[in-house]
Amino acid sequence: MTGQAGPASLRSGSHRWAAALLGALLPALLMLSATGADAAGARAADAKPVVTLSKQQAGKGGDITVKGSGWRPNTLLMMLICGQSTPDRGVIGGTNSCANAEGRAVTTGTEGDFSKKMPIAEPPAPCPCVVHVATVTGEQATADAVFVVAGHPVAALPKESEGGRLAVLATTRLEGDSGILTWFGAPPSRQLVFTVGNLGSAPVKDPVFRIGTSHGVFAPQWEERQWRGTIESGRKAQIKLPVELTAGAHGDYQVSLKYGSKVLAEQPWGVGRPWGVTLFWILLCVVVPAAVFRIGMAIVDKVRPRTSRTPVRAGRHHHPQLADVTARLPKLRRAPAPAESPAAAPTTTAALPWFTPDSAPSENRPTTKGHS
Description:
Layout: H1 7-46, E1 50-53, E2 57-59, E3 63-69, E4 76-82, E5 85-86, E6 90-91, E7 104-107, E8 114-119, E9 129-135, E10 142-150, E11 166-168, E12 173-175, H2 180-183, E13 189-198, E14 204-205, E15 208-215, E16 221-226, E17 230-231, E18 236-244, E19 251-259, E20 262-271, H3 275-303, H4 322-328
Parallel strand pairs: 2-10
Antiparallel strand pairs: 1-3, 3-8, 4-7, 4-9, 5-6, 9-10, 11-13, 12-13, 13-18, 14-17, 15-16, 15-19, 19-20
């Protein structure tokens, strides 16, 4: 007999088909969602911060309003007016080309935007000038806006070598040792040694590198270092650049090497604690109180009244000292010991009762015994 499929069997079969179809479509749905998330993250990463100014030109003594968008939320930024700079080439002279004293700090909002006034100052380098905005902590991000400082000198930018492209060919390293002064808080210094090759078609003459040092979550503090020499196309060269930290620095640091807008290498640097400073403060906390105590005791002994040093013998409320009491006690005589010789006996002895000084027998006085 051939059984016929009932409603229950049809429902179970449809459920199996639905489960199989869902199992086949689930990986595709997961891949689509992951692709969408990656695309959103890529769009967020590609979004560059933007800076706009309320004025494009102004003279020293005034102020402008700087607005920005596209920054990370709740990020601390530094705003500077820099000379010898363009948005395309960046700040060529580094922060040495900026009016650092008149810079301003601002924190972005939850949407990554900000708005703040800053005074107009003349940078130490000639124009072209920009308003340079950079992050202080976290991942490095910068943005520049063209600005003309009225009345400030203008000079042409240094020529940029065309066709030259440098790349690090070997592992970087730090050379040098810390001296005895570093143990007492002197600035630690090293030499960053690396080998670069010119992968471009034109030689690179006197390249300018940027050395950045960072500690913990803080962004690197960049300083420019120029290497004197020419690297021909297809050639390589070993370069040594000085690196120095602030006085008393200790802990884990990161040294970054940058050429143009590209970070070429990063090198960790562990700096020991300056224990000499700690030892100095410990000795200072021990020696100074002891010296103050000795000086204080000497002063007290010097200014103390002289009458208080000797006992007062007269006065109504005078309390006799122990030495005075013992001096008034009668002298006690000690009897000579039996074993002592007559020569050691006291010279003053009591007279016997049956003798008088005149009747005492003497060796030179004759006796009357036997005479009538």
